[in-house]
What does this fold into?
Amino acid sequence: MPTTATTEPDQPVTSSEGRPVLLVISGSTRPVRKSTALAAWLHGLADQQGAFDIDVVELAELGLPMLDEPHHPRLRRYQHEHTKAWSRRVERADAVVFVTPEYNHSYPASLKNAIDYLNAEWRDKPLGYLTYGGVSAGTRAMVALQPVVACLGMRPLPQAVNVPFVANVVGETGAVDANETMTKSGQAMLAALAKAVEEQRLLRAQPTA
It folds into this structure.
């Protein structure tokens, strides 16, 4: 069975069977956030697929302050232990999913802050989105993220999960009532991420001239 965990900031998940690691980032920090439940739902779906070991990051629990490093992150001259731990955790991942709501046609400051702490650690990682909101299903958050992840050299995939009217999907207890469309979208995104990771592995294995 895949290794799955929601781990502490300085304890990234470690694959015991050589599977790639999928970092699922729950991007909201509000006490009533839905990202926790949706990240757990995706976690379960990924377990069923079996292609990844899963590392779920709750930004509300990660405890990153507003960016407080004195040097540009591209230099990787990190001064603080919370940055070093975050760097190790992202570096360990082979692919990433942002689970994010839409706030004012964009995404939460907590997610932007977590992204901005690092630079090279994000590069070349296949990226999926699980967005949610009202009638727009969080798609404007996804659009707002596109120039950011392009600048960082990430590889966003066209497959995504976009959840409209999230209050009808995530109950007060955190139970997720996923319909067939949502489930199929999640399965397609996970399959695309697994394929992208494998393609990268094969490319890196090729001898250089």
Summary: DSSP finds six helices and seven strands in the chain. The helical segments are 35-49, 59-62, 81-92, 109-116, 139-151, 180-205. The chain has a mean pLDDT of 92. The first helix runs from residue 35 to 49.
